[in-house]
Fold this sequence. Notes:
By secondary structure, the chain is an alpha/beta fold. It contains 17 helices and nine strands. Strand 1, helix 2 (42-45) and strand 2 (53-57) form a beta-alpha-beta unit.
Amino acid sequence: MTSRRHVLQLLGSSGALLAAGGCSPAAPPAPTLLGVKGQLPKAWLKQLPSPWRSQLLEGPQQVLALVEQGTAEPGLLALGDGWAQQLDRARLQPLQAEALLEGLAPFAAAPSRLFGPPGSRPVAFPWAFGTWLLLLRNRADLERQRSRGWEVLLDPSLRGKLVLPSSPRVVIDLALRQLGLSSTDPASLEDPRLLQQVRELVNQAQSLDESQGINLLLAGDAEAAVVPSHQAIPLLQKDPRLTAVLPDSGSPFWWQLLLRPAPLGSLSDSPPLPLEWLRDGFTEPLVDRLLAGGWVPPLPRPQLEGVLRRWPPRLRPLLLPPEAVLKRCSNLVAFPPLERKRWQAIWDQALSA
Length: 353
């Protein structure tokens, strides 16, 4: 039979435990990395340290909606540069990763400021970049004509067999490069040849949707598609029918960024950045996994070239273009209202023909 003293001891112990549980403050929620499915390398994501967790949504629209509505308070956001520029800068806090940023190539400084003026605070960690490529299926003849640059998009043999990006901004940028004009010079938009060039490009294409373009290409319904390099690189490694070209005139850049939203409360409530995790993504063996997915860290050229020596020669200039080509690439910076209206007018007129 259980003694009275033993029963009292058991009751006392459980009471103490209950009291302790009732009085302890609730544990803070685990910090979350909020991003988009398919836009973070799985191997890297698996290394996210505890207590961090990831939440991946179907598209960037959903990510922005959660943040803007205040229904999510992530510790980190993962977004492409176009979507990240739609965020209210007042909702972002300084990155506070100076040592990591200093280890990047100089051309990564602009996206780290979200393309703000030089000297403005870094609010983004640019962990991957790339270009737009012309992906070809069984068209070695067009690959050999790479000296024609983006003009090859208008080759008569590609009529109705070409897929262009859904982004009017990218298509107009390619038209400007065909004409030898600069997309960063607003005066280029006044060139009387531009509208006709955009119109010819649009009429040449069977579809304006780079994501669908991959499927059309693989099925043989298209022979060429303009796609971001992170979509092309994995396919080029396993499908011998495919080749890719980056013309010497360059292309727009794409960037993948990590950002720190400001907490609704005090900044002291922000979880510390997982700095070691960020650093590990740029070192072996994880950097090879990033490159295999077409995600190229914006590291200094000598450092990247050392890693790329293990890669097939045909893929190296697609992952890291020659310096001269890289200098001709440009960032897709958000427009002021008047310039955005001008670009939209060109696109609307091109589609109305």
